[in-house]
Amino acid sequence: MKTILFIIQKEFRQIFRNRGMLPIIFVLPLLQLLILSNAASFEVKNIKFSYVDHDHSTASRELISKFAASNYFKIITKFESKDMANEAMQKGNVDVILEIPNHFERNILKNKITDLAVSINAIDGASAGIENVYISQIITQFNQNLQSQFLSFNDGNRVVPQNIITIPSFWYNNTLNYKTFMVPGILVLLVTMLTLFLSSMNIVREKEIGTLEQINVTPIKKHQFIIGKLFPFWVLGLFILSIGLTIAKLVFNIPILGNIGLIYLFTSVYLFVILGIGLIISNFTETQQQAMFIAWFFTVIFILMSGLFTPIESMPQWAQNITLFNPIRYFVEIVRMVLLKGATFSDISFQFLVIGGYAVILNGIAVWTYKKVS
């Protein structure tokens, strides 16, 4: 036990002596959490809106005013012809073109079918889909208001229109604030990247400077060396989690409905998984550059397949099956479930067992593949 403590003490001293590494460990993750949480958003705003009004009627002006009053659209200009509008979209000056046909108001008054042409820049398919929803909602509401006005009188008798009003109830994020969804996931990302990169490059660094061979010929046992090497990064991971949770609560006002101890319990086991992966990478690489690139390769795959930015339910079935082997997926689910839903241990028991199994398997492989000169 004393041997392990001496190694741990040596690792902490080595970390704090490296002044270039301290900002990366303590300052950079916090800045990333503050910046990414404000930058990463599923909302689509400041949509560059333009229109071509061939009718110049009261109804067409009222419809355009609905878009002007929306917080999502920014009216750029009015075009006299569709060709001019198309040219502006080709240059990237506008995102949406609304074309109102001739006799738009007259056809509505006579209960005739009338069409509206909407052109959307769909280079970004996800944003185009959201923009289409916004446009459809505004046009539908405008149409309902017109129908209510036209049905107000029938054969000289006033008719009270019967409107159906829906009152949605938003659970777990009643203000629809995207930060409530993104901050827990980004916190998971930072904890994972920090511990994976540092642990994967730590032993490789010993190889590069030549001290690993000296350690290998000492009486230090394999498990003592590995525990002493990885324990400091396990502590750093929990420390980053603590700072991140504090920022999430104080800066972003993220609700913490569940037991915070569950987060730490799961993170403690999860860090063993990440540290095991880092140790495996360090066992098969000879330079820190190699370790960094391999760690980055796996991190990108883990992030994209974790449900952090893309819902897992929207992925193809084969991709959903692959995510079952992704440890970050379970960590993202757990953090969101406990913080936002108030989940208990029974609710996360499956994810906990999976991560526990991964921790045993990966660390077993890491110890087995580590070669020590006897």
Q: What do these coordinates show?
A:
By secondary structure, this protein is α/β, with parallel strands linked by helices. It is built from 14 helices and six strands. It has helices spanning 2-17, 21-39, 58-69, 82-90, 104-109, 125-150, 178-209, 211-216, 222-250, 260-283, 288-304, 317-323, 327-341, 349-369, and strands at residues 47-53, 73-78, 96-100, 117-120, 153-154, 157-158. The strands form two sheets. The protein has a four-stranded mixed sheet with strand order 2-1-3-4, sandwiched between helices. Helix 3 links the parallel strand 1 (47-53) and strand 2. The longest helix has 32 residues, at 178-209. The chain starts with a helix and ends in a 5-residue tail after the last helix. The model has no long low-confidence stretch (mean pLDDT 81).
Can I get a quick summary?
With 374 residues, this protein is of the alpha/beta class.
Q: What share of the residues lie within helices?
A: 55-70%
How many DSSP-defined strands? 6
Strand count, sense and barrel status of the largest sheet are: 4 strands, mixed
Fraction in beta strands = 5-15%
Written as H for each helix and E for each strand, in order along the chain, the element string is: HHEHEHEHEHEEHHHHHHHH
Report, as a whole number of angstroms, the end-to-end distance: 20 Å
What ranges have pLDDT less than 50 throughout 5 or more consecutive residues? Answer: none
Features:
14 helices, alpha/beta, 374 residues, 64% helix, elongated, two-stranded antiparallel sheet, 4-stranded mixed beta sheet
